[in-house]
């Protein structure tokens, strides 16, 4: 689900598919998807994010003033939402188990994406209480990654005993 970013090299990427970060690869992830993740993890300080927990889901506002980071964010968010709708789990090696329920019950998530040049506003709701909880937990996990990068991933994996 790339946006023409292709193989990322130089300041916004470290080789094809985030090869410098093997945990960003997955069993069903494209090199472009892994490269988008690498851009976001390498440049997490350039990402701003806020989350509002709703009674039936979440509303997130995520963006970056860096055009390369914003392009990676946009492609990643749109691509992952499409994957959830299709039930195509990329099985990224560092992936949170909170995503499992999304791929199992993605047809029960209502998603609205609003895009501006500065940010993505994503509202996701569900009538399934377990999905609502998973949406809120995952939003908090993504916020932690936007705040602390790969350090947050390592902490979450250690908490899960992985």
From TrEMBL:
Taxonomy, superkingdom: Bacteria
Name of the protein: Uncharacterized protein
Organism expressing this protein natively: Roseicyclus persicicus
């Amino acid at each position: 689900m790339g946006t023409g970013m292709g193989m990322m090299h130089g300041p916004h990427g470290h080789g094809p598919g985030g090869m410098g970060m093997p945990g960003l690869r997955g069993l069903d992830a494209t090199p472009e998807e892994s490269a988008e993740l690498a851009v976001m993890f390498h440049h997490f300080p350039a990402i701003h994010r806020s989350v509002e927990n709703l009674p039936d889901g979440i509303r997130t506002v995520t963006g970056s003033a860096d055009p390369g980071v914003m392009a990676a964010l946009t492609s990643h968010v749109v691509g992952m939402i499409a994957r959830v709708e299709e039930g195509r789990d990329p099985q990224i090696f560092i992936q949170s188990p909170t995503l499992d329920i999304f791929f199992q019950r993605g047809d029960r998530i209502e998603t609205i994406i609003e895009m501006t040049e500065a940010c993505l506003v994503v509202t996701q709701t569900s009538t399934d209480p377990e999905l609502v909880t998973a949406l809120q937990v995952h939003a908090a996990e993504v916020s932690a990654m936007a705040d602390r990068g790969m350090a947050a991933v390592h902490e979450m994996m250690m908490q899960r005993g992985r």
